[in-house]
Amino acid sequence: MRDFFIIDTTLRDGEQTAGVVFSMPEKVFIAKMLDRIGVRYIEAGIPAMGGEEKESIYEILNLGLKAKILTWNRAVISDVKASIDCGAKYLHISSPVSDIHISSKLKKDRRWVIDNLKRVLHYAQKFNCEISVGAEDASRADRAFLYTFAKIAKEEGASRFRYSDTVGVLEPFRTYEEVKRLRETVDIDIEIHVHNDFGMATANALAAFKAGAKFVSTTINGLGERAGNAAFEEVIMAMKYLYGHDLKINTDLLYRLSRYVALASKRKIPSGKAIVGGEIFNYEKGLENNLVYDEIFLPEEIGLSTKLVIGKHSDIHAIVSKYHSLGIELTEREAAFLLRYIRTWVVKNKRSLTEEELLNIYEDKKYKKGIDMLNIQ
After folding, report:
1. 311, 352 contact by CB (below 8 A)
2. More confidently predicted of 286 and 115
3. Is the pTM above the cut of 0.85?
């Protein structure tokens, strides 16, 4: 199948999540992990911010990673200068393209946006950098103007064009149509950058791939402004198991990377989060049943494991199996006896039992006496 590359922007757009701040050591470690896991492109941050942000980017650029390290820049010459000063060779230059952004954010008009893009790209070309151009708020832009903007980017030396769904208003059918039309109109590689405001970021990323996009922006755990970006872990696993397209990512490290980013960002991973949720491979029924038909991929592939928990829907076989793992052998009659009390406890407390609680139930005198009486009969 044709190429489809991840451009991970955890260190840039991910850190733009309100209240999230990565320290320099955290940024460096995340960059190393992304490189080790097999990400080919890492958007490391915004040099124009200066201070520790610029120092972190400089540090990452000098790690000798296999991945290409991108810097994010506004379509402003001083931003490009800051990136060049860091030693960056891969620049992403972004400009608003929707009328609402052009008039309200820039206080300019369409003609100014085109002239400014030419001016900034002409300046950047002097440094022999690989340049991508981003169309900010492309999903709300006038199509004719968007195509003109993309053509100018191509003519002025950009090798890639980022279609940005900045406010997350795309849905998969429209995404497919937008990317398909853009490809048919402008001969340039397309990157899709989507936000998750309506919970469709991963679906939009896949639709863009189907329409011919060659690159996709992602963040670990779907971090990002408002509802976040397309989640790295969801995109790579969906590509592999839904489309049969292996992006050559070392998924053994996926859960470890996800947990580290969660800790560094102080954003907990929901227990039921797709792909990396800590409890998505927990079962109340017997594991011997679930492993046959309830898992499309093995949890070990991403660094997790299957776990049997005891709850309302547990059956006798699950009780026998769980107590066996705790070193206690129960007959099916004994398990059936305990199951009645276990279900009452679970309904009352509205959660599954811990292993310690299961042991306590077994050792409780009234239950122990019941089991003894059962065995006498």
Report:
1. yes
2. 115
3. yes
